[in-house]
Design brief:
single chain, alpha+beta, Heat Shock Protein 90, 3 domains, six-stranded antiparallel sheet, five-stranded mixed sheet, 48% helix, rod-shaped
Length: 482
Amino acid sequence: MRRRFGSVRARATLGATLVVAVALLAAGTAVLLSLRANLTGQADAQAERTARTVAAQLAVGTPYGDLSSMDDDERPVQILDAGGARVAVSEDVERIAVSGADGAPGEAGEDLDPGEIDDDTRFADGSATVDGESAGHRFAVVEVHDPRKGPLAVYAGAPLGAERSAVRTALTALLVGFPLLLAVVASVTWLVTRRALGPVEAIRREMAAITASADLGRRVPEPDTHDEVARLARTTNETLAALEASVERGRRFIADASHELRSPIASLRTQLEVGAAHPALLDVAGAVEDTVRLQRLAADLLLLARLDAGEAPAPGRRVDLAALAREEAAHRAGVTVQVEPAGLGRVAGEAGCVEEAGCVEVAGSRGQLGRVLANLLDNAQRHARSAVTVTVRRETAEGRRWAVVAVADDGDGVPEAERERVFERFVRLDAARGRDEGGAGLGLAIARDVAVRHGGTLTVRQTPEGGALFELRLPVVRGVSS
């Protein structure tokens, strides 16, 4: 029972039924009160009309026996004098009882002049007994000054049987109709929510099956609609696709990392085993080279792991890209650094970049950005024929200011079809290239990941001479004049 009423379907049905029940109860109460007030008003009008007709006759001295409306059993009339004694009553009327009325005319009646009728009418509920049968009536009381008898009070009643019968009929209809209407509302809501939540249940079952089978290649069914459920299904499938791609990248990363680590470890072990057996044959330089290569590969894998874990650069740190480019190019042969405009990024003591020179600073990690430039320069030198050029400049695009570092070489360039693939991990376009010469294929992947973490981009295109041109774009830090 708890599980059933804990479902969205059951709660929606219960909620809709309760809301409709409250609305129907309020509407039914309003209808009954309005009906009763309307019928009571009609009875008041009838009683007042009869009372004033009789009062008008008394005002001109008409004898009691000649009064009209005194022979109508459905509209009983009685006349009381100043002492409360009944001086006239309708035919066949045995008793009239009026709630909250003492019967005698009030002070208003005593103040009336002979032949004058009081303008005010009092109304009260009561009963009249005719031929031994009592029935509820609505009475109107009108005071008049009879020229012969003095102040009199005329009581005229209108039957309430029709009003009470109509109210009872309406109440019966409501009591019978409300449960039927609530049952219809509950049934329709149950069926509609079942149809609406059917795709959600299908998505849940498929997700449960995917979890049980660990098959991320499966997808949840997408309903042929344009509502929230369809968007939920599409978003779920997009999440599954991203998760599948992430898991697949992780598997490839582990496999490629294991493969890349196996080679230097095996080479180093072989050299050490040979050196242990034959010390004279130990290749110390080769062992050191394999150790350095292994160290670099481990550092690359560690940095990629930190980037994948969401590591972001520390906020508030500024880096001068021009100075950083010069530092990275200082110990490399054949690398030229150009800054546009001339003098951009000059250092003036501890003040950092000179704003008057149009300094370009970016926010981020100096170590990680230095790693990006180092990887780009290593890649450019590996493929250049003779020269590598680094250009640092500012650009404004779409209302934003960017710092651009362009690294160009005079090599063969990157084929257009491979310009995105070069940023994948463990990708080396030249499959025949030796590992020691070509590296593990992680440099460009690390460079792009760091650029993205710093809010920028890293792309590759072709120079006019046909070489490769890598462009690093990072947002200029605010507060520096342009």
